[in-house]
Write a structure and sequence with these properties.
single chain; alpha/beta; six-stranded antiparallel beta sheet; five-stranded parallel beta sheet; 9 helices; 24% helix; globular
Amino acid sequence: MALPRLRTVALISGAALLTRRALKRRIARSPLWPLPALPEPVSGHSKRRATAVRRLLVTGRTEVAEGVVQLRLEGPGLPPWSPGAHLDLVLPSGLVRQYSLCGDPEDSGAYTVATRLVADGRGGSREVYEQLQEGLEVEVRGPRNRFPLTEAPAYVFVVGGIGITPVLPMLRVLAASGAEWRLLYGGRSRASMPFLEEVEKLGADGDRVTVVAQDEAGHPDVAGALTGLPPGTAVYCCGPEPLMAATTAALPQGCTLHLERFSAATGGTGGSGAGSEAFEVELRRSGRTVPVAAGQSVLAAVRAELPHVAYSCEQGFCGTCQQRVLEGEIDHRDELLTDDERGDSMLICVSRCRGGRLVLDL
């Protein structure tokens, strides 16, 4: 019995050896070998964001304030998230928009988002409001978190309207933990302010919540809300640009400021205008070089060659188009990246090149 078994093993080993030798000869003759040993690509795979696309089912749709709809999106194996995180929604038209998660992080089977209908916006909110009904599927990317809840001795939140969505899960956590916090919540009217009833209940102990409806009391007193804060207080702000500018201007010394934008800051440099000279971009992995005209964004030039490159806001605040830069000096014009990230990456929708050439990891 042992002899036939040894003969079989010898035959298998010999066949494997001949196969390896034949493969080596074939590789040696091929002009495509050896392939370049490129490092793992970084572009589109930032540690700060999950890029996997998954399809979720709309299982709930509720109007939670005038012009504000809340959606419950269910699916299997959803990645966990923390307060302040958001999703990218790939809408039926192909538009990509970011919406803060406002549900319960412990609900592992669903994500909850809310959006306000902006009649004169760029179309994303109207598409969500009118087309995403119960029973439909929607593609999502993420979640990602650029607005995390940090450790601090005390917290103050300054919020306008739909800006309550990333803050609401933070308030739930802080209220449950007994932390020191206060909220200034403004809006056009009480009827237009989403989750107002829950917010007031969370802050009922200690008069932590101040609600200012513009049709009743005008604009909120941001400077007053930030007066006399103890050093180390974390101040979080999300809402219209004037509210964020007022919060930034009134921030007391020794406090930290955390901003979440739903649109670009007023007066941003953008991707064209002064200092927008032409240059070229090498796409290292694709083996192509594309010219970027003086009035053209890097994103537009790159997508002419690589249409799959993801983007969304085109204004430098969402982070969808972040790409790794291998060579060249970057002219950063975004509202998002940290100093650390600016060392080797850029948002190609608005940022440009200081000089004649950039090399991207694409």
